[in-house]
Amino acid sequence: SKRHPGHHTHMRVVALAAVGAATVLWWSQSRRRRASVREQYEELAGSYNERWAAYVQATLNAFMSCASEPLRDLTAGDCVLDVGTGTGAVPRAILRSFPGLKLSAADLSESMIETGRHECPAVDFVVAPAESLPFASGSFAAATTLSSLHFWTDPEKGLREMHRCLKPGGRVVLSDWCHDFVVCKMCAWYLWLTPGHSKADWSILTSREVNGMLTEAGFVDVAFTTYKVDARVFGRWWLPRWGMMAFVARKAEQGSCAVGRDSREGRKRERE
Questions:
Q1: What is the pLDDT averaged over residues 88-117?
Q2: pLDDT tens for residues 55-77?
Q3: Which residues have C-beta within 8 Å of that of residue 85, sequence separation ≥ 6?
Q4: CA 205, CA 189: separation in Å to the nearest integer?
């Protein structure tokens, strides 16, 4: 069937309008001041535990199932570090399951750390970003981080810092949002479009990227899994299940020869 003579002109106008709108949106987003991660969580600290209780519990349960085996190998008195701890949900959970361990926890938000100190005095809380941890090399038998990696200014440097702080043979357990999942891609776009979020909010990483970062940081025996949590924990009934990834890796023993990168690819297990 023949199209109306003005059809192509109309389509060109629509296309130009779309490109123009996208350009204006990009320009306005690039100029709009973004809250820093520190600013966001300084403001959230007072209500964080209540506001995010369902999400924290859902992800913490899955995280602890991944962390239990590495932590079970430790002995009383061993030191464990949690990075990007927020108000300390992970160290509190570890102490409940493994009361003989000594926990330290770092976060860049002083207000979040103060809340953590109040709720769990047994943990040694410090104000510090992942990229500059104030601990001596080889101080910890294990290190953990949950839902924090994508907030770090420099994830590669943060993972190198965790590696430095571990003793030879020490294990790292890491879990974060996973850009492998469509729902996380959708969320990244939403956070980019709405005000009040830092760039880190939408800088969600893929499992392949994190696997490469761990390998480059010097970790060996890198293994990972993906899992999902019910998105109703965000108060969004219409979202599909939220995508997460979890990694377990090890710092090589002193004197051991690190294997090549190709043979250190993470071993993936899908878990629904």
A1: 95
A2: 777 888 889 998 999 999 999 99
A3: 91, 105, 106, 107, 112, 113, 116, 125, 148
A4: 14
